[in-house]
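Customer escalation, tier 2.

The customer says the design service returned an amino acid string that "doesn't look like it belongs to this structure." They asked us to rerun it and document both sides in this ticket. The original structure tokens are below, unchanged.
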């Protein structure tokens, strides 16, 4: 299967691609903090944030359809958490509905909170898509480590990204083997077969992890993330950071008084 799911377009040559991973990490974090702290009533600021991240996406020359698909992947999880907010928030009732024996009401304040969560989550996801799609994953991990992120977290992220594809390949092979044996029968038999597959996949994952760990130790692994490119700040990083910071600060000052 394809093993470049996150950093598929990281080999580009745009201004955003050439920035140091630490610069992109800091600016992305600053953007997310600014989005989260912006009041929901200040809709002009959210329009500005969208225009800002859209401009960076255009500069990076990422395919729009790819960015849209990647940003919508997380949306079901956001909606799963936030969809019930309008029903439990106090305030003026926008509508009432009968669900079986229960009567639930949707409030205007709850709808505002739902819109707040959805908009902020989507803008944050867009910035993360921009970060991950324009940065090689190994360099991104190296930037995280040099930015002070604990070594254990960086290693977990590294191993998760490297071997999740191995687990998916193993699962696909098991599914083909199951289908080739005429997988059918009643629902109880199907659930028992799926349960056995999950158990076998867990055991194989554990055993493979032990073998990989032993192989890494035998090759002198010292828990350090290495890449051929040495990270270094350039003038472009300084100019970009200053311009991005000024854009966020000016937007906060301007929209605060509107």
């Amino acid at each position: 299967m394809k093993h470049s799911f996150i950093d598929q377009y990281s080999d580009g040559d745009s201004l955003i691609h050439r920035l140091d991973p630490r610069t992109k990490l800091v600016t992305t974090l600053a953007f997310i903090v600014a989005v989260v702290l912006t009041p929901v009533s200040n809709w002009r600021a959210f329009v500005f944030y969208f225009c800002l991240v859209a401009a960076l996406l255009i500069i990076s020359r990422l395919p729009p359809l790819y960015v849209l698909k990647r940003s919508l992947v997380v949306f079901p999880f956001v909606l799963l958490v936030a969809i019930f907010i309008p029903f439990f928030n106090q305030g003026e009732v926008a509508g009432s509905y009968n669900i079986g024996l229960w009567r639930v009401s949707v409030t205007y304040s709850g709808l505002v909170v739902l819109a707040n969560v959805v908009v902020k989550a989507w803008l944050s996801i867009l910035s993360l898509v921009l970060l991950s799609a324009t940065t090689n994953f190994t360099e991104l991990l190296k930037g995280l480590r040099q930015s002070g992120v604990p070594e254990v977290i960086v290693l977990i992220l590294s191993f998760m990204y490297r071997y999740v594809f191995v687990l998916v390949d193993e699962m696909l092979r098991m599914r083909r083997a199951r289908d080739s044996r005429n997988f059918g029968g009643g629902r109880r038999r199907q659930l028992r077969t799926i349960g056995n597959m999950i158990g076998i996949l867990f055991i194989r994952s554990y055993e493979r992890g032990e073998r990989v760990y032993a192989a890494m130790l035998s090759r002198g692994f010292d828990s350090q993330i290495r890449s051929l490119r040495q990270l270094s700040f350039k003038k472009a990083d300084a100019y970009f950071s200053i311009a991005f910071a000024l854009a966020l600060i000016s937007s906060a000052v301007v929209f605060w008084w509107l």
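Tier 2 assessment: The sequence is consistent with the input. The CA atoms of residues 3 and 244 lie 32 Å apart. The chain has two domains: 15-136+229-257, 151-218. Sent an explanation to the customer and offered a walkthrough call.
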